[in-house]
Amino acid sequence: MQSDYDAIVIGAGVGGANAAAELATAGWRCLVIEAGAYHSRQDYPRGELDGNTRLFWHGGMELNRSASIAMLRARVVGGGSIVNQALLDEFDDVALDDWRERTGFAWLDQAGMAPWYARARGALQIQTVPLVHANRNAQLFKQGFEQCGYQCAPLQRGQSGCRHEEGNDCIECLYGCRLDSKQSTPLTSLQAALKAGAKLLTQCEVERVSEAPGRVTVQARLADGRPQTFRAGQMVLAAGTLGSNTVLLRSGYAAQLPRLGQGYYCHPQFMYFAQYREPVLAHKGPFQAYKSDDAGFRRQGFKLENVFSPPIGTALLLPGMGAAHQADMAAMRHYACIEVAVRDSHPGRLSLGQGGRLQIDKELDAEDQRRAAAGYQAVQRIFEATGAERVLPGRFGIGLHLMGGLGFARRPEEGCVGEDYRLFGSRRIQVADASLFPSAPGINPSLTIMALARRLGRQMAEAA
Ligand SMILES: Cc1cc2nc3c(=O)[nH]c(=O)nc-3n(C[C@H](O)[C@H](O)[C@H](O)COP(=O)(O)OP(=O)(O)OC[C@H]3O[C@@H](n4cnc5c(N)ncnc54)[C@H](O)[C@@H]3O)c2cc1C
């Protein structure tokens, strides 16, 4: 493993696996280094507690400095694709126009992205969540939208057959899909990369990277504490937004990149539970089936999704303490749930605090609070229209779409990565994950991360 490679890809998540697939199939000798362990359908953790500790960084969540938003990021081969809801959407003109305006990159439009979306889609199966199996939580969502005059649409998901007709409940696939239906990267792009000869080193955390004429050097540590050093001609940094920013901050890149860690977004999400007289059984059947598809919501900077959370997550989110909290948990089978996801306009900042630990400064400013409040108002109307007895707001925000910190830009005063995906001032380090995002799109990011990573991989292979 210590020998030379054409490229080292850091992180076997959504972006890293897609970049590695392009490079390896073009004949590059690739090493993919991943901090997490490899799991398969045979040994995904059963149960939420085990899942949080084995599949996520820091036991499940990392808080912003005011402890008002909990960020979740996976630490496992496959990254977010193992634990996410696999909802796959292309960006609309609103998101791409904003990116093009900020960066000046002419290809950031529907036509420029179309071949890369097609390439990303080509490596996966995508299905509309079958509405015939939509559970009562989803039905209430749709009914509420119709009664309030809002538009909603069925969800597109990376899945190949969730066997709902056999009574499968897919809430558990948040901790890895034991049916191998969810199109996670170990079943798709990463598998293609490994078949083409890429090597995968698991449970190895990259600590520092550096660049010298002719090569990059990666210093890492195995789970048993042994240090490792690797060299390659090129490096693709794809450790996810928090991971890639941490590696570069620890490696001293702040001097070269004045904007390092700035421009951090997370689509803050707020979950609202509503209690109904009849059982809702939101944990049964397909986890989600509908999303908002409402031009008015898009203009106001939020979207709604029909969603739920497993018991530990719900217990953390529900307000109240002691006996009152226990009584609320006992009513869980009667809860529906809707999530407001804010398209955050106010960026946060990632930096290193005491002992080199990542520090996340991320708050909602007045505008983002207005967006969240507008979303809550819509949720209240939907719950009211469908006969909810009471609404219980989740008591903190959640960040699942972690983006930015190494944003695409024209020049170093505006971001960290140029049009060729290279860090400004670097010849050999390129970025292929969500940290490239120059702003929050307000749309599920995975498909676009895949498309951007495919584009980078192809360009590197062609340039060589
Ligand atoms: C619960 C949940 C639900 C979600 N649902 C959706 C959804 O439905 N649709 C959608 O589009 N998005 C969803 N997301 C977000 C989506 O999963 C992420 O945006 C996406 O995975 C980010 O891709 P990435 O390549 O940037 O990073 P990741 O996929 O997170 O991959 C980064 C990888 O790098 C590894 N790594 C980090 N640091 C190091 C290091 N120092 N050394 C070695 N390896 C390292 C990590 O362990 C990880 O495996 C969800 C996320 C969560 C947590």
UniProtKB/TrEMBL annotation:
Domain named Glucose-methanol-choline oxidoreductase N-terminal: residues: 54-268
Transmembrane segments: none
Keywords tagged on the record: FAD, Flavoprotein, Oxidoreductase
Domain FAD-dependent oxidoreductase 2 FAD-binding residue range list: 6-38
Domain Glucose-methanol-choline oxidoreductase C-terminal as annotated: residue spans: 361-453
Gene3D superfamilies cross-referenced by the UniProt entry: FAD/NAD(P)-binding domain (3.50.50.60)
Domain of life, per lineage: Bacteria
Xref: InterPro entries: FAD-dep_OxRdtase_2_FAD-bd, FAD/NAD-bd_sf, GMC_OxRdtase_N, GMC_OxRtase_C
Protein family: Belongs to the GMC oxidoreductase family.
Protein name in UniProt: GMC family oxidoreductase
Species whose genome carries this gene: Chitinimonas prasina
